[in-house]
Structure formats: structure tokens, C-alpha cells
Design goal:
Structural class: mainly beta
Number of helices: 1
Strand content: 35-45%
Radius of gyration: 17 Å
Mean pLDDT: 90
Strand order of the largest sheet: 5-9-8-7-6
Largest sheet: 5 strands, mixed
Order of helices and strands: EEEEHEEEEEEEEEEE
Helix content: under 10%
């Protein structure tokens, strides 16, 4: 997406499990949101440091902090970044010798560009019960103050579309052509158009 607040664009690099913000005019990297494992010294300087709500460092090897194989980032009105986190190889880089359970979730991060920190402020993982290896979408719908999560990769339980209120209560839950693959799901008002 294009961030008109500072003339930059934010790109999801799914196979690197990174979200990267780049200055539009200069093409210089502003920050990288992603697991700190494996970056070279040239790019390490752009990595955002994980913090909790008090600004304390987070040990990401002991928490599910980073997105993996994510996509569909969007900037919310509060400046936070909302994205769909497929979760492929979740936690692999923290300890590759431990078997990992992949699951998909939607997440929201608050980024402080001045001090180069990132805070996980919201997540919904549906009790870690759904994994989509690819495709899906999350959207914040301002008109209803709800979030729509579309698990669109086909399996015996997906595609599935869920709408949540601000307390993560499920307001709508539907399976669509189970086993088929779709790109994303959007909520459409038949009279108004896309919400």
C-alpha cells in the first residue's frame, strides 16, 4: 500500500516473511518488520525491535510475535499495520530443531519509526485451529468497527470467512465451497458496494 502520510510504500515480501517500508522518492528502506534471523549486516539496521506495551524488549523465541508468509498489509487510520499472517513455518527460525505447528492468524502491529520499535497490539488465531498455506485476507471495516478474516486456501474446513467485533467475538462464520482456493474475501453491501 502507499502511505501518503510520508510518501512511502509498504510491501509484503511473503517468502521472506517481512514487511518492508520504502521511501517513494529515494527508494531507501525505512524499516523492516520481520524475524531478525538471517539478515545481513547491511539490512539489520532497518529491523524493527519487538517491544511490549510498556516498551520493554520482547523475547520472540518465547512468544508468537512475528508474521510468517504474511500478506495483504494495510495501514489503519491509527497508523497501525493490519495483515494476514499465513504462518508457514511459524517459529522455525527461533529453533529449527523443534517441530512447529503452523496456523494462520490476523495481526495488528503498532510501529514507532523514530525509535525503530514494533508492538503486537491485536491478534486473532481462532484457537490455532486453521492453517492456510497461501491466500487470504483481513480487513478492518470502519463503518461497523469490525474485522473480516477470509481464510481462502481450500481444505476440509476452508475457505472460511469470519467477522469479529472489537472483543474478538465471532459475529459471522461461514464456509464457502470447502476445498476450493480463492484469493481473498470482501464484505459487499448490495446497495452501497464494497465496505
Amino acid at each position: 500500500y502507499f502511505d501518503d502520510t510520508d510518501n512511502s510504500f509498504v510491501v509484503s515480501s511473503r517468502h521472506q516473511s517481512a514487511i518492508i517500508k520504502v521511501d517513494y522518492a529515494t527508494s531507501k528502506i525505512k524499516w523492516i518488520l520481520g524475524d531478525h534471523y538471517g539478515w545481513n549486516s547491511t539490512l539489520e539496521q532497518y529491523l524493527l525491535n519487538p517491544v511490549d506495551s510498556l516498551g520493554n524488549s520482547v523475547d520472540t523465541s518465547q512468544s508468537d510475535f512475528w508474521p510468517y508468509a504474511q500478506h495483504a498489509p494495510q495501514r489503519l487510520e491509527n497508523g497501525n499495520v493490519l495483515l494476514y499472517d499465513d504462518g508457514n513455518y511459524r517459529g522455525y527460525f527461533d529453533n529449527p530443531n523443534v517441530p512447529q505447528k503452523s496456523y494462520t492468524r490476523a495481526v495488528e502491529y503498532a510501529i514507532n519509526e523514530q525509535v525503530r520499535t514494533v508492538r503486537l497490539v491485536w491478534k486473532f488465531d481462532n484457537n490455532k485451529s486453521i492453517f492456510t498455506a497461501a491466500t487470504g485476507y483481513v480487513d478492518f471495516m470502519k463503518q461497523t468497527n469490525t474485522r473480516l478474516i477470509a481464510y481462502m486456501f481450500g481444505s476440509v474446513t476452508t475457505p472460511k470467512i469470519i467477522e469479529l467485533d472489537v472483543n474478538n467475538n465471532i459475529l459471522f462464520d461461514a464456509n464457502v465451497n470447502t476445498g476450493m482456493n480463492y484469493y481473498r474475501g470482501l464484505k459487499v453491501d448490495l446497495y452501497e458496494g464494497i465496505l
